[in-house]
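Notes from hallway chat w/ T.B., transcribed later so I don't forget. T.B. wanted the structure written out for a chain they're using in a teaching module, and asked if we could keep both sequence and structure tokens in one place. Agreed to drop them here.
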Amino acid sequence: MNIKDLDLQFLKSKTILVTGASRGIGKALAEKLLDLGNIVIGTSRNLNSLENLAEKFTRNFYPMELDLESTEAIANLSDELIKKFEKIDVLVCNAGVLGEIKKIEDCDYETWCHTININLNNQFLLVKSLLPSLKKSKKGSIVIISSSVGQNPREKWGAYSISKLGMEGLSKILAQELESDKIIVNTVNPGGTATRMRKQAIPDEDQSKIPQPEDILPIVLYLCSNEAHVSSQSFNARDFIGHLKF
């Protein structure tokens, strides 16, 4: 798929929710979407971690607290969004946790459940709670940030890998169910990217030698735009590095 000719003017004046917007891919995406003239609702477990974005973008950035461990927090966010915004055009499910990098026989059950709940069960709940707002958009999009281990499971990545496999499946089911509502649903695998989670997983890696968060944005920006019509697809962000000038 060629996105090199994408006019980013087709990506403005949208209301976009980005989870995990305080750092890494989420922060880079939120900043670019705001630069392009969109309204961005950025969430984080710690509201203070969004202060830099709020100070830089005083008009169109709405910081909101969201702890994906809490079903109550998800319900509260949904209620607040319904009150403040007429619709949501795009939902980017970016937030998540790594969990333990261990063989399954060595995994702690509570930690396993914690990872699955945040990365899968409560992602489902978040998407479900926001569907009424997404259905009010003339052209909605759900972008799920996945992982290579969600497409090709890897030893010692147990709960994280399974949670991402689950999100890959959820996206394909949603794509079918939401087709008549003109909502597209896709996943994006960032690949090795210089984030805190990556550092946690591979502490000895030199992050200056791998793509930075802003490098992997082109395919995500495309899927947020009015130009995107594909659905039920899994994209590798590295295949599109350098395809957009911004």
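Follow-up for T.B.: The chain has a mean pLDDT of 91. Might be a good example for the class.
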